[in-house]
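Re: beginner question about structure tokens

> Can someone show what the tokenized structure looks like for a real chain? I only ever see the sequence side.

Sure, here's an example I had lying around. Input first:
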Amino acid sequence: MLKLLIRLGYIAIMFIEALIITRIILLLINANLENHFASWIMSMSSIFVQPFDGIVASTLQINAFSIPLTPIVALLFYIVGAFVLSELLKSFSRE
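And the corresponding structure tokens:
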């Protein structure tokens, strides 16, 4: 039962991370947010990125290139959080 919960947790975290990575890519290439796919990705990932607004500056400007920082901070948090939780769950398993 614990292995099933760990696998479901991995799937959920991987889905969240994929959404955030896709959001970062769409923002980097300056995608048209009127597109249904792009607007869906932005709306679905905003749930997971919004809590990190204001931690750092929203973008980093290098000449004419703009790098979104808030989704990167959110992605790093979810990666570290998933690792810590998975290690905690593994430490309490009997195997």
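Each token stands for a local structural state, so reading them left to right follows the chain. Residues 2-91 form one domain.
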